[in-house]
Each structure stands twice: as structure tokens, then as C-alpha cells.
Amino acid sequence: MQDPIATELRLRRATRVLEVSFADGSRFELPFEYLRVYSPSAEVKGHGPGQEVLVLGKENVGITAVEPVGQYAVKLVFDDGHDTGLYTWRYLHELGRERAANWARYQERRARAQR
Q1: The whole model's pTM is what?
Q2: Which site among 22, 43, 87, 102 is 20 to 30 Å from 96 CA-CA?
């Protein structure tokens, strides 16, 4: 499969959603909180399997900037100071496709951590 190519990004601050459209016709609405807790940064993902960090308290996080990185990714600048990690088109497409499963997994991990 060829890597997906983003054709349009819309930052919707009022609803806290990044809307991403792709050349294959798919379009995803990705909430800021979801993007923050699934950041591709080493701070969140760690440096290998099992090193992921559970990010909490990002319900009201905002995105202040979307900075292009070449023609393959963007850097999202969050208002909590987080600005590392490159969101490639492939990763954004994956986040969109797997949003329901990813979010359910995050909610489960969050519930376990708060027990």
C-alpha cells in the first residue's frame, strides 16, 4: 500500500478537532485530546515497546500551530507546551482509521490508573 497523502488540514479550535482529508477520499476528525495522548513523540511513546507513557489531564488541551514538515508530516504545537513528535500522513491516517479502538484502549488504561 502506498503511503496516504493528506490533501487538506483544518484546525477547528472551537470544537477542538483537527480535520484531515486524504487523497484516497478518506476524511477524519481527530480531537485535540486524542492527538495529544497519542503523540508520536518519544515523551509519549517511549523508545521501545512497553515504554509508553499514559498521558492524563489533556481534556481541554488546545493546538496553537500546525507546522508543515516537508511534504510528509506536520508538527503540532499544543498549548500545554508539547511540540515534539512528527505526525506523518501515514500516522494521521492510522489514527483516523483506528480512532475507536485506540480511544477505547486509552479509556481502559486511564480507568485502571485512576483506581
Answers
A1: 0.94
A2: 43
End-to-end CA distance of the chain: 42
* Domain annotation covers residue 52: yes
What residue numbers bound the domain in which 71 lies?
6-109
Q: What is the CATH number of the domain that holds 15?
A: 3.30.2020.30
pLDDT of 22-71, one tens digit each? 999 999 999 999 999 999 998 888 887 878 899 999 999 999 999 999 99
CA distance 80 to 58: 9
What's the burial of 70, exposed, middle or buried (CB within 10 Å: 0-12/13-18/19+)?
Answer: exposed
> In whole angstroms, what is the distance from residue 109 CA to residue 115 CA?
10
Task: Specify the 3-state DSSP secondary structure of 112.
Answer: helix
What are 74-112's pLDDT values in tens digits? 999 999 999 998 999 999 999 999 999 999 999 999 999
